[in-house]
């Protein structure tokens, strides 16, 4: 038995398992050449002694088995889906995840990334980073990094993205198919001066414009630029729904923004879907709740998290060439979209223009 006030060491584990310290070290590092019997014996001893690897000591040996995740806010429910995927992929490994919310400013996120690197994270997953691309590249040059969301590739990091052009087209095609012609889109301002040219919001907005143009509706599409947040969606909803030519449908660039549009419509006495069709993006758990039943684009955040974790571990293990994975979106139709009132009044037929 070890004294309760003394931390269990790797030597204690080796003694209990009746193996060498080197063998225990190989198990901790998931090194090759370790038999299943040896691995089982060592892990049983670790569990019996309640052994926890000392992160600082492991860092001195070149590995801490900790992964840092950088995001702007914990309030976006889509990020929870990504984190679930990361946890699922790392389950059963020695890796632990530390999550940091750096705010929506570039400087705050860059400071957070630096802090995680200083604390010897083995790798970083950056979810739609608002910090500059130069800072991301600089960070990725010093620690393995995966960027989720942004379509701008670079040799220093891996990318996990959704086909946002196709996702936006799915929304427009669905709404036009129901008879809508006056369709608006909500997007985000993003962070200026960060040199990202193809963030998810920019690609979705481009996809919206292209799809509208393809249907002959692209002369002057309504786009409200606020933010992918509850507050941003609310402001976009107020702006769009108080116009004299208010739209009959709104495509919100994120589910969290769609909830803000919901709130604005409720306050203005506008019924969804009778007076306004509404579509979100991300298909978060909230979208499927019975009181909401939001039509939304599913980009499989869980699968994106799984891919991000897998790619990061590969990077940590030594792969140097960049990898990019692209998920295929699908539209999940629920209660918040229907034909506009003038089409319903015409027996479901769109009046000639």
TrEMBL record:
Q: Tell me the CDD domains matching this sequence.
A: HTH_LacI, PBP1_LacI_sugar_binding-like
Alphabetic keyword roster: DNA-binding, Transcription, Transcription regulation
What region holds the HTH lacI-type domain? 8-62
What the entry lists under PROSITE patterns is as follows:
HTH_LACI_1 (PS00356), HTH_LACI_2 (PS50932)
Q: Which domain of life is it from?
A: Bacteria
Pfam families referenced in this protein's UniProt entry, alphabetically? LacI, Peripla_BP_3
Listed GO molecular functions? DNA-binding transcription factor activity; transcription cis-regulatory region binding
- InterPro entries annotated for this entry? HTH_LacI, LacI/GalR-like_sensor, Lambda_DNA-bd_dom_sf, Peripla_BP_I
What is the recorded name of this protein?
LacI family transcriptional regulator
The scientific name of the source species is: Amycolatopsis pretoriensis
Please name the taxonomic classification of the source: Bacteria, Bacillati, Actinomycetota, Actinomycetes, Pseudonocardiales
